[in-house]
Design a protein that fits this description.
This protein is mostly helical and 95 residues long. The protein contains 3 helices and no strands. Keywords: Membrane, Plasmid, Transmembrane, Transmembrane helix.
Amino acid sequence: MAAPVGGLVTGVIGSVLLSAAWRACDVGVNGAANGLALIFYGALLTIISAMWWGALVGYVGRWNLAVALLGGTAGAAVMVWIFVALLHVPNGYRC
């Protein structure tokens, strides 16, 4: 149960942060213009992070659930950081 929930939460947080970065840099025409890209990127992040959560909770969680949840949270934070760092300035936009 932790894998789908953790993956979904990670995907939503990443999409919200990326949307805020794009809005601050005036990327796109308006908020609706970036919607499809945000849905695609958010779904991709959700799938990758759900696999991370599933592997970690499934393997490490057998012995110590607290360590598995902390590792999952740390890994999700790193994934969101990389996600936003790579995509916050598409096509040469600078802010």
